[in-house]
Amino acid sequence: MKHENQFLMLFAGPPASGKTTVARTLAELLGEQSRVVHLQSDEIRHMIISPIYSKHESITVYASLKALSKTFLRNGYSVIVDATFTRVNHRRPFRVLARRFDVKFLAVYLKCSLQTALKRNAERTGWRFVPSERLAGIFSSFEFDNSLVVVDTETHTPREAAESILSLLKTRIEAS
Ligand SMILES: Nc1ncnc2c1ncn2[C@@H]1O[C@H](COP(=O)(O)OP(=O)(O)OP(=O)(O)O)[C@@H](O)[C@H]1O
Ligand SMILES: [Mg+2]
């Protein structure tokens, strides 16, 4: 079922850093024939009637994202997983999954300043609004590692960000 250009990409970063916006732009660039799935932690989390953002809930959400990724990869889809991915431990199982399915893997950190994230977040309504303390907490606890590719959404438009991610993905192919 695997196809030549199949990939698994992680879009990591704090709330309002631009993960979902850039993922949607990238999906548009790839076009209708690309068989790409965009998995969002938000959508899984909001299947829970009253999410409480506990550690156990996070573990369950990431495990669900992994299970879905596995099913889609097995059936020939490329997958973008859009979640905060604060911890190295959140990201590691996906790298293992990509290796197992022998598909390209890229973990991208969508970067913006706390100030910008707070400003973007202030324009959100309903459950999309993230309490400022939680947002700041994610900024201070995010675990970086060398394998993360950083794309700045303050200096790049969503289109530029998506294009640079695509070209990074291409170099990964050539390098592997
Ligand atoms: N260059 C940019 N790239 C991405 N988003 C941008 C950019 N410039 C401005 N924005 C705005 O910033 C906001 C980013 O929100 P988005 O929902 O994409 O973030 P997110 O990282 O998915 O957040 P969450 O983790 O809460 O789902 C959007 O309102 C978007 O229009
Ligand atoms: Mg989002």
Automatic annotation (TrEMBL):
SUPFAM superfamilies: P-loop containing nucleoside triphosphate hydrolases. GO terms for molecular function: kinase activity; tRNA binding. InterPro entries: P-loop_NTPase, Ser-tRNA(Sec)_kinase. This is AAA+ ATPase domain-containing protein. The lineage of its organism: Archaea, Candidatus Marsarchaeota, Candidatus Marsarchaeota group 2. Gene3D superfamilies: P-loop containing nucleotide triphosphate hydrolases. It comes from Candidatus Marsarchaeota G2 archaeon OSP_D. Signal peptide: none annotated.
